[in-house]
Amino acid sequence: MTDVSSSLLISPSLILILGAFLLPTVNGWARAALILILPLLTLGAIWQVGDGVQMTAQFLDYQLELVEGSNLSRLFATIFAIMAFAGGLFALNQKTTVELVAAFAYAGSAIGVALAGDLITVFLYWELMAVGSTMVVWAARTEASGRAAMRYALVHLFGGVVLMVGIVAYIQDTGSIDFTLMGANSFATWLILIGFLINTGAPPLSAWLPDAYPEASWSGTVFLSAFTTKTAVYVLLVGFAGEQVLIWIGVYMIFYGIVYALLENDMRRILAYSIVNQVGFMVVGAGIGTEMAINGASSHAFTHIIYKALLLMSAGSVMYMTGGKRKCTDLGGLFQSMPLTALAGIIGALAISSFPWTSGFVSKSMTNQASYDEGMLIVWFCLMAASAGVFLHAGIKFPWFVFFQKDSGLRPKDPPWNMKAAMILFSFLCIWMGVQPGPLYDLLPYPTDYEPYTSAHVYEMLQLLLYSGLAFFVLLPLMKRKLTITLDFDWFYRKFAVDVSARLAEMASKLIGAFIWVRDYLISAVIDAASHHHNPRGVLARTTPAGVMVFWVVVVLFAYLLMYLFV
Amino acid sequence: MSEDKKAEAPKREAVMGGKSIPLDITGQPMHWLVRPKTIKLLWVLGIALLALTTWLGTTVHPHAQFSIEGTLGFYSWYGFITCVAMVLFAKLLGLILSRKDTFYD
């Protein structure tokens, strides 16, 4: 790559990506300082990016647009940098440096996608993200995380190949590498859409997310929750806004997340399923494609990253302080000894449920409003039911089973100061953005005069949520946790394909065995026949005494005599 | 919820400040928030809150674009019924798809 021309000193994404590789070289306070300063420097650089193309480079015959600014791209890049900061603060006591290096390179690549102006740059950062996130899963260094990382990598490399074929075909068709609204109207654009959708956790491959994310370390999952799915939402908003099929894919994701989370016992898998559920709302927003819907999807992505990270920090703190306990059946009653962690979990849970005066209320409601404004009755009904369902599967279920329910007798303390600080920061943001939505609305791609706090809207949401809560406690006996998992599409590649290939291998070996048996049988039959006839006593090889010959001559002569006399 | 708590309520009690307080699983006096009395109070308050929000919902008359939205306490019954439906659907799906959590090990 030559001829980089730029109005910026350095691409914001490179500050994090290159800076990440400095982390293994320092220790102690210098390491902590670097972890906190790198995301802040990146954030500063992002805010220097003006509208339009800011950095280009020549690659083969193409001019790559390495950095291009817009309201939408700055919004996503900003939240990615904030997330890297809070995630780094939370992970300061993570001893595995490789996890932090991978997580920062991963965060930087996500910022790279958000600021990319052309498809080739999008693809390069896209694949870097796949590598970084796989390393974050793998860095937990357990057998389960190693296997999960491998499955995660396979799904994402497959998605990457689909995306690459789509991009190559698109460039072939149009001659342009510009990343702009394209719509699914050709083979190439369909492939690009599928490549993007795989990263959102769309069906049928949704299972990669709840399979891999919960296997990362107590701090790794916090990073993982933020970047892959939300960059996928960003590229959908840029490339496929208004694509009708996305509405129904999103609705499926919403209910998939709720139903699977309701059946789940592992607290981090509950939260992983709820990522698919929440991203479903954003995919619906992208599908509706109006200004209100795009504002809704992008503000929801912004607030979601914060409250989902907060929930996973709360879960991560529980794991950190209980020696890795994750199952609801092992937990309960923890609010007594870790009040701050419980409070952070509750604030995150209220925000994800769009409770009034939290960040979810001022963001997700815009998508619901967009479907209402467009007269999409069925979609609106689905979104309303799903809003109640979010409270059910995550809003109450997570805090209830982890911090309340039956007393497990565990009395872990709240985690170290830095983890508490990260939770306090994000709890504050969840409430502050809910009470003061103005600054968030100012960052949105389109100017908005949306007013979330009308008394009608507040009462509607309170009714939906509180009656959802009533349903939870009335049906509590049905919600009792058991040591189960729920089969998903990953069964096909974790069990079915393994069983089929084992069966095929067995059949093949039997077939080869049969062939060898037949071959051996034939060879030994030939040898037997040969040795039978040619052995020293065989018909064709034995030496016969003269008396036998005389006997047969007499027999022949006697026969001749008889014939002569009577014939 | 209240039945669960009653069933699990320990038999031993501690006397603090003239009041008898049940002991929790670790043998300490139970946290005030999970004592049976508090839980009973929370149920009463919760039901009062539900009634209040439904009533508040009837005091505003937003422009209802979809006719069903105008029915009495729409958001209350819709929230409750759809949640019950989702839980029941999940249970049915669980009958088919649930496996022991060691299934893939």
Can you give me a brief rundown of this structure?
Chain A has 22 helices and 4 strands. Chain A has helices at 12-20, 28-47, 71-90, 97-115, 119-138, 143-174, 187-200, 208-212, 220-224, 227-239, 245-263, 267-288, 291-322, 339-352, 359-373, 377-403, 417-435, 438-443, 455-474, 476-479, 490-534, 546-566, and strands at 2-6, 52-59, 62-69, 484-486. A two-stranded antiparallel ribbon of chain B has the order 1-2.
Largest sheet of chain B: 2 strands, antiparallel
Strand share of the residues of chain B?
Answer: 5-15%
Number of strands of chain A: 4
Radius of gyration of chain B: 22 Å
Q: Percent helix among the residues of chain A?
A: over 70%
Distance between the termini of chain B: 34 Å
How is this structure best described in words?
The complex is a heterodimer of chains A (about 575) and B (about 100). With about 575 residues, chain A is mainly alpha-helical. In chain A, about 70% of the residues lie in helices and about 5% in strands. Chain A contains 22 helices and four strands. In chain A, helix 1 runs antiparallel to helix 4 and helix 15 packs antiparallel against helix 16. The termini of chain A are far apart. Chain B has three helices and three strands, in the order αββααβ. A two-stranded antiparallel sheet of chain B has the order 1-2. The mean pLDDT of chain B is about 80. The chains are: A mainly alpha (about 575), B mainly alpha (about 100). The interface between A and B is large, with 60 and 46 residues. Strand 4 of chain A pairs antiparallel with strand 3 of chain B, so a sheet runs across the interface.
